[in-house]
Specification:
The complex is a heterodimer of chains A (about 180) and B (about 325).
Chain A lengths: L2 E3 L1 H19 L5 E6 L2 H17 L5 E4 L32 E9 L3 H11 L6 E9 L11 E5 L6 E6 L1 H4 L3 E6 L3
Parallel strand pairs in A: 2-3, 2-4, 4-5, 5-6
Antiparallel strand pairs in A: 1-8, 7-8
Chain B lengths: L2 H5 L30 H15 L16 E6 L5 H12 L3 E6 L11 H9 L5 E6 L4 H8 L3 E7 L5 H15 L6 E5 L6 H12 L3 E5 L15 E3 L2 H5 L4 E4 L15 H8 L3 H4 L7 E3 L12 H4 L6 H20 L4 H4 L1
Parallel strand pairs in B: 1-2, 1-3, 3-4, 5-6, 5-8, 6-7, 8-9
Helix pairs in contact in B: 2-6, 2-12, 3-12, 4-5, 6-7, 6-12
Classes of the chains: A alpha/beta (about 180), B alpha/beta (about 325).
Chain lengths: ~180, ~325
């Protein structure tokens, strides 16, 4: 199973994204991070601590579970319901610039669901998308504002971002499905 | 879906967490606690945990059950349970249809099965049933295509009440296993009791039942509970005190001399609450008879979680509706 990013590379990529955020938004007054559960949440927390290191100010950070907004929930003929986990956004998103964080950007359907969910929490000034890996094959008109790594893949492949908080170590893998 | 198949996909297609084992409800209906395994109970409680947060949002609604129709078929009066189900259905964006006895053809002599089959011809996805006959939900589950959710059947079960009680206990105590739970009141006519005993013992709680001997069903200790006629023994060092309503409408049989005497012997007073653990919580499924099974000061006391139970009821019912609405292998589950 080919490793396309190791822990060191992933760390430097996150630092680079943090600098891009600061450069693009000139100050952090109205910024807030929202990570999509589960790995986006941990990436958001890592970005929050890097942003604090750069600017000396904390950035509010929340976690979003999009299960209840999925467009394929009631379409499966067979199979159990996906588990629903808590959404925790402990601040008002009104008039904030929300940095939405996900580990892998693929069809765009997760992001569509996340946008719908966020709108139910208020009216942000803007939403910017951070994708740690963009693997292509969009099915919806969605584009990331910050990309950790562009990774051309075929649909038969699967991309896994492994994080220490969830998996015990950091790496990005590509594998052919079914192997 | 197995854990390994989840891991083989990236986050766009497999959003279920890998930290918890994937799980599901085996049945397409919720007929009673009896049919649920401990793992299924925990799945419902964990899902309810996520649903609870929706009530704190500015827009208290998610699109999950859009386009689904749920019929609330209530053959017995109910305010709390029916409105709770209705709120849960609306928060999940389902279309709801309330059928009340007073306005239905039942008063013209239609049978339960005929009523249900006629409603089914309008192809609802789920039927929430409250009926005075024990086993009514099992009967409908056999003849209907819709998923059936038991909202109380006779003296048999009231599973969503037991689930919301367990949810409330877990929220306060962090667990159910090893807790001493005292349940005091009319043990004979209570479907809430039956569902609660099944659930609490299944999750490892130490359950003590107390009530007038005339209202204790024979053989109930076989469910793995302690039974005592002495309320002081039941509540001693209890973590949870749960009171059951004295069902005034069913008291024509002369089960005890008077309501005043019942209050003196079994009524939950502040003095009796002091015998429980200092951090004990007081629960009541409602509607309360103040001054019969519970003193007013206790109902309004700082340890009372009675109104939290009502709020949690919506979250637990959302969890049940969500888990049952999914794609279930109808052939295998039927």
């Amino acid at each position: 199973m080919p490793v396309v990013m190791d822990a060191d590379r992933m760390g430097r990529t996150l630092t680079r994204i943090a600098h891009e955020i600061v450069e693009r938004n000139r100050g952090l007054d109205e910024l807030a991070l929202v990570g999509i559960r589960s790995r986006g949440e941990h990436l958001a927390l890592r970005l929050a601590s890097r942003l604090q290191e750069i600017t000396g100010r904390p950035v509010p950070t929340g976690a979003l579970d999009i299960t209840l907004y999925r467009d394929d929930l009631m379409r499966h003929a067979v199979g159990p319901q996906p588990l629903v986990r808590r959404t925790e956004i402990p601040f008002s998103i009104d008039d904030k610039v929300i940095l939405l964080v996900d580990d892998v950007l693929y069809t765009g359907r997760t992001i569509r669901a996340a946008l719908d969910a966020l709108i139910d929490f208020g009216r942000p000034k803007a939403i910017q998308l951070i994708a740690f890996v963009d693997r292509g094959h969009r099915e919806l008109p969605i584009k990331a504002d910050y990309v950790g790594k562009n990774l051309p893949t075929s649909r038969r492949e699967s991309v896994q971002v492994r994080l220490e908080e969830v998996d015990g170590h950091d790496e990005v893998l590509v594998e052919v499905e079914g192997q | 879906m197995t854990k390994s198949s989840l891991k083989s996909k990236d986050s766009e297609t497999a959003l279920a967490p890998t930290s918890r084992p994937a799980s599901r409800l085996r049945s397409k209906h919720l007929l009673g606690i009896e049919e649920l395994s401990p793992e299924e109970i925990v799945l419902i409680l964990d899902t309810a945990e996520a649903m609870r947060e929706i009530a704190e949002r500015p827009i208290k609604k998610v699109p999950t059950l859009r386009g689904r129709t749920v019929v609330n078929l209530f053959f017995e009066p109910s305010t709390r349970t029916r409105t709770s189900f209705e709120v849960a259905e609306k928060r999940l964006s389902a279309d709801t249809l309330n059928v009340a006895i007073a306005t239905s053809s039942v008063v013209k002599g239609e049978t339960l099965v005929d009523t249900a089959l006629n409603l089914e011809a309008m192809s609802p996805d789920m039927i929430v049933l409250r009926h005075a006959a024990s086993g009514a939900c099992h009967l409908l589950a056999r003849v209907c295509r819709s998923r059936i959710i038991n909202a109380g059947d006779g003296m048999h079960e009231h599973p969503t009440q037991a689930l919301l009680d367990a949810f409330t206990i877990r929220q306060h105590k962090g667990r159910l296993a090893g807790l001493k739970v005292a349940i005091v009141g009319d043990l004979l006519h209570s479907r809430v009791l039956r569902s609660n005993v099944l659930l609490l013992t299944r999750l490892g709680a130490d359950v003590w039942l107390c009530g007038p001997p005339t209202l204790i069903p024979t053989g109930i200790e076989r469910l793995g509970v302690h039974v005592t006629p002495a309320v002081d023994e039941a509540v001693a060092d209890a973590d949870v005190i749960m009171l059951l309503r004295i069902q005034l409408e069913r008291m024509e049989g002369g089960f005890f001399p008077s309501l005043r005497e019942y209050f003196q012997v079994f009524g939950m007073t502040e003095e009796r609450v002091r015998r429980a653990r200092p951090d004990a919580i007081i629960m009541h499924p409602g509607p309360m008879n103040r001054g019969v099974e519970i003193a007013s000061e206790v109902a309004d006391g700082p340890y009372s979680v009675i109104l939290e139970q009502v709020a949690n009821g919506v979250a637990v019912r959302m969890a049940v509706l969500y888990l049952l609405a999914g794609g279930i292998d109808d052939e295998a589950a039927a």
